[in-house]
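Folds abound. Consider this:
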Amino acid sequence: MRAPVEPARPSIATESLTAAEIRLIVESYELISVGRRFARNFYTRLFEISPEIQPMFPDDISIQAGKLTEMLAALVGKLDRPLDLVTTLEDLGGRHRGYGVAERHFAPVGRALFDTLAGELGPRFDEPTRRAWIALYALATTWMHHAPGAALSE
């Protein structure tokens, strides 16, 4: 009997961020108030964009807000350690699969993230910074999708 075939994993070399993108992400991250306000604004925006996602979350979003804050800090903190970053993202992908997250959820989550960053950073969320965060989000969703186990549903 054949073992299930895992989706092809992206390579770290071809999917990593540039030094300039990492610098922009770290610098902009240090300027935002990543805490309860940021998380509250993020979830408010997410549920405005995609109200069908809201039932996936508890009524009291405070614990989830803390998890979002911790995960953003972990991702930004590991940008200079690609293997650690990949491990974190694969773990995150596996956990989200268990929560019922599907590929269709990634776009509204990304939009909510970028809108929240824009609200926090104002004019400092310029085009190069926006592109850097988009690159990080694309990297994150790629690795989450390729986490060990079955692929996320459509």
Notes: Confidence is low (pLDDT under 50) at residues 1-8. Residues 127-145 form the longest helix (19 residues).
